[in-house]
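Input/output pair, single chain:
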Amino acid sequence: MDRMSAVKYAELGAFLRSRRERIRPADVGLPAGPRRRVPGLRREEVAHLAGASVDYYNELERGAGSQPSEQMIAALARALRLSADERDYLYRLADRPVPVQGGPASHVHPGMLD
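Output:
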């Protein structure tokens, strides 16, 4: 991995972490539970919501994973309830083409997921 990729993947991990931390479990239909040591969702909860393995998601957050596919970026955007601008930024961080508005991979607004 070249230096530019390493920096970009570190930014990708930091962005995923920041978005994960702002979502409460109740926002995605999960029980809060009595003992939560982290703000927001746990990594394994995001992985489950996105249909990814926990190990793979952990690697992405650490900035050590491989380049995620467009399908995985779309799944993470949905799981993290990203706005359209945040979703586009996530695609750019992952060096993937930003989907065309209204196309088959078009973003679903978080309010619609409720």
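The radius of gyration is 14 Å. The mean pLDDT is 84.
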